[in-house]
Structure to design on (247 residues):
């Protein structure tokens, strides 16, 4: 079984977020970028575990981005994986990104495509479903457990108030979340080996974006806190009636 793991470059969660050009562009100055945690900790690590268990023969990584994503790809390769593909396209449109991934998955005859449940910058959760539709493959979202046996995949996923267990045939597409695997820290051998692992850069297929970002806006600043003396319940009641907002 050949596995293709989708990874994305995202800002570190501690990065200071600012926008430029009248709110139309994200200011990358001084921002530390990382591998999207859902892609790295869950999708990639589970793919590696399946290979280590003899249930997968090859694990490739893919990202749709410009050359500035190459260091992120190398970081992911340091954790594991046999090689990587970078589609040379900068796009914030999920359909365009999914189209490129689906084409690469079909061309490479990958049996299983794994994604994180979402990226921590756009939080769209749409790539996995789009890739599955474009490939005409079964899809499971928000998976917390995955195993393979005899051409079948057994998958657990969260549902409202519980967990659902199912089985599906290969080839398939699955998005992964917490519970799928445990985070791995790359060791020195992995870091050194990542420098020489194959990184194929391919030009994008023609696709028409379906969405565009018009403007970014920061959330409103938090209002100040009002402290009410324990000896003044009447003031608390007044504030609750006149100033408190029900969300």
């Amino acid at each position: 079984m050949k596995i293709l793991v989708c990874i994305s470059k995202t800002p570190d969660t501690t990065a200071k977020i600012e926008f430029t050009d009248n709110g139309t562009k994200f200011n990358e100055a001084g921002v530390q970028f990382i591998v999207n945690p859902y892609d790295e900790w869950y999708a990639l690590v589970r793919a590696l575990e399946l290979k280590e268990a003899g249930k997968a023969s090859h694990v490739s990584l893919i990202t749709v981005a410009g050359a500035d994503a190459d260091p992120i790809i190398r970081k992911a390769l340091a954790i594991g994986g046999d090689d990587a593909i970078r589609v040379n396209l900068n796009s914030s449109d999920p359909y365009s990104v999914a189209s490129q991934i689906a084409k690469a998955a079909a061309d490479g005859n990958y049996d299983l495509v794994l994604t994180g449940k979402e990226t921590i910058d756009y939080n769209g959760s749409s790539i996995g479903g789009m890739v599955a539709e474009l490939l005409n493959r079964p899809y499971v979202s928000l998976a917390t457990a995955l195993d393979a046996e005899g051409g079948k995949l057994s998958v657990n996923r969260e549902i409202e108030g519980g967990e659902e267990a199912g089985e599906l045939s290969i080839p398939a597409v699955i998005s992964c979340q917490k519970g799928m695997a445990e985070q791995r820290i790359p060791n020195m051998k992995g870091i050194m080996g990542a420098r020489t692992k194959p990184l194929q850069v391919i030009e994008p297929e023609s696709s028409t974006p379906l969405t565009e970002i018009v403007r970014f806006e920061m959330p409103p600043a938090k209002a100040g806190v009002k402290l009410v003396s324990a000896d003044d319940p009447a003031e608390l009641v007044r504030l609750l009636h006149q100033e408190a907002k029900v969300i």
Remarks:
- Residues 22 and 158 are 40 Å apart (CA to CA).
- Helices lie at 37-52, 70-79, 94-107, 127-135, 188-194, 233-242.
- The mean pLDDT is 91.
